[in-house]
Specification:
10 helices, 9-stranded mixed β-sheet, 29 strands, single chain, 5-stranded mixed β-sheet, alpha+beta
């Protein structure tokens, strides 16, 4: 009992098989002939995995179930946004999943959202017994940069899961690099359509560069790279673009009227996407729009309309894109003959957009069409890299960063009020850094990730929700599970009316019967005395 008093509360979640494995490791190194292990728990269903136990039959295991006084709990399970990116001064819809693991329904319970410690969007929710519900909280980000948030509800007596922390960034601007073919005449090399679209919007910072004057080390500074009608994609550029996409960047490809299809094919195949097969000079028209894709989800007012009645781009010639079923192609625009006009692919953590035509008016009127602006604007918007909203304490989480340390600077994870500061382990891989938290974070909350004194981003940590579900196995259910998994050296100990201490002493020392012996001896002695007296009479 003294050792139990020294046990400290920890956010770590351990399954039964992990605990048994730890006990086995400790007892295997002891020379005791009789090895006995005890596991005292309420045996919540979320942590019991008896089928995964690696059994050591030389050890007698005893499960001691403890009944919880209160089994009711309402908690915040998780949250997510309806769209993958956050935009300045735009309405965001945050979905919050709330679970009720009690036998009572909850009505008109309040839920609050705090952004940078300012309360937003108060709301209420109802949830049936043994059920869950989703609450949608709407708000607009009125400032750019890091937003550190938390959601709160009121519930008693289990309170560790009544707050949920998350962080996100609202972009101040999106850097875009347009790589143009080498030419002595800039006006013929740069695209007036791209310059007008991305150059005139304060959200984007557009930079033009020639393919023969590229500084590969600066590619990672951008969110979107546009290949504007390059004749050849060199192997060096292809390798750098693949690395750029694997770290979360987006690439948009417009071919040249005289493209070297072999060089394009080599680049596209290394990214495991479809490629240009040949040039088709037959007139065609775009007649299909993927309205389910995020690019077009909120562009049109009505989702059910006939695209053939719209004035969509007309194509005089285009490159036919291969139809490899193993690629993860999502078409955005498609021609009447079934050929893809514009498609999107996931390339590791990044994205690649492939156009079947250049922005040359001899191929199509796409660049002058009204659909061109929302298409490329959304591609630029969705080039923002999305970081996890939150991490789980004890989950051995890894935080990724593209910020490179300089000089003697080190990474820091710092608490909101500067009352917590740790230097985590980090590993550099390619152009990114993996930051390993291990078990240094023990309290749920919002934290800042810094490189020296420079703020990189915000990171939020929440307690594992496994123990929020208070459903536990009963004694007979545990016994049945042990029998089912042939764990014959495991026993469920039922203490009954006696104390736990007495039950454990009986297991180790046996049931002490000396008191009964004395009582019986005294009883027999009294009987003998009585018999002698009456027999004399």
């Amino acid at each position: 009992t003294e050792l139990l008093d020294d046990v400290k509360i920890t956010p770590a979640i351990r399954t039964v098989s992990e605990i048994v494995s730890r006990q086995t490791d400790l007892l295997q190194h002891r020379s005791n002939e009789i090895k006995i292990a005890y596991l005292i728990s309420d045996f919540q269903k979320s942590i019991v995995n008896n089928a995964q136990i690696k059994n050591d039959t030389s050890i007698a295991f005893n499960f001691i179930p403890l009944a919880a006084a209160q089994k009711n709990n309402v908690y915040i399970d998780t949250c997510w946004f309806e769209t993958p990116i956050r935009q300045y001064n735009q309405i965001e819809k945050l979905h919050v999943r709330i679970k009720n693991v009690s036998d009572k329904a909850v009505e008109n319970n309040s839920i609050k959202l705090f952004i940078n410690n300012l309360q937003k969007t108060p709301a209420s929710f109802n949830v049936d017994k043994e059920s869950e519900t989703e609450v949608v909280l709407s708000f607009a980000s009125k400032e750019a940069g890091l937003q550190q948030c938390r959601i709160e509800l009121n519930d008693y007596p289990v309170t560790f899961d009544d707050k949920f922390y998350f962080s996100f960034n609202v972009a101040k601007n999106i850097p875009i690099l347009c790589i143009n073919s080498s030419s002595t005449d800039i006006t013929k090399s740069e695209s007036p359509y791209l310059n007008k679209l991305f150059g005139a919007d304060s959200l984007f910072i557009l930079k033009n560069s020639f393919e023969n004057k590229l500084d590969y080390s600066t590619l990672s500074n951008n969110k979107l790279i546009v290949l504007n009608e390059l004749k050849i994609i060199s192997s060096g550029l292809a390798q750098e673009l693949k690395r750029f996409m694997s770290n979360g960047g987006s690439v948009l490809v417009f071919p040249n009227s005289l493209s070297d299809l072999n060089s394009y094919k080599e680049f596209l195949m290394t990214a495991n996407v479809n490629y240009f097969e040949r040039l088709d000079t037959v007139n065609a028209k775009v007649d299909k729009i993927n309205l389910d894709h995020n690019i077009y989800k909120d562009v049109f007012e009505k989702k059910t309309f006939n695209a053939t009645n719209l004035n969509l781009p007309i194509v005089s010639k285009h490159y036919v894109i291969s139809k490899n079923t193993h690629s993860n192609e999502e078409y955005l625009l498609k021609l009447q003959n079934g050929d893809v006009f514009l498609s999107k692919y996931d390339v590791e953590k990044g994205k690649l957009y492939l156009s079947s035509v250049p922005l040359n008016p001899n191929f199509s009127n796409f660049a002058k069409h009204s659909i061109f602006v929302p298409t490329l604007y959304k591609i630029g918007m969705y080039s923002q890299t999305t970081e996890p909203l939150f991490y789980t304490i004890g989950g051995d989480e890894t935080i990724e960063s593209t910020t490179v340390l300089t000089g003697e600077n080190v990474y820091h994870i710092r608490g909101e009020n500067n009352n917590f500061d740790v230097i985590p382990e980090h590993k550099v891989m390619d152009a990114k850094t993996e930051i390993l938290v291990h078990n240094q974070i023990t309290n749920a909350g919002n934290y800042s990730l810094l490189a020296g004194k420079e703020l990189i981003t915000g990171v939020s940590f929440n307690f594992n929700r496994k123990e929020s579900d208070l459903s536990c196995y009963k004694t007979d259910e545990l016994t049945e599970q042990l029998s089912k998994n042939s764990l014959n050296n495991f026993k469920v100990l039922v203490t009954g009316a006696q104390s736990l201490k007495q039950s454990l002493m009986e297991i180790e020392q046996g049931k002490k019967l000396w008191k009964f012996c004395i009582i019986l001896a005294l009883l027999f002695l009294a009987v003998e005395v009585l018999l002698l007296r009456f027999m004399k009479g």
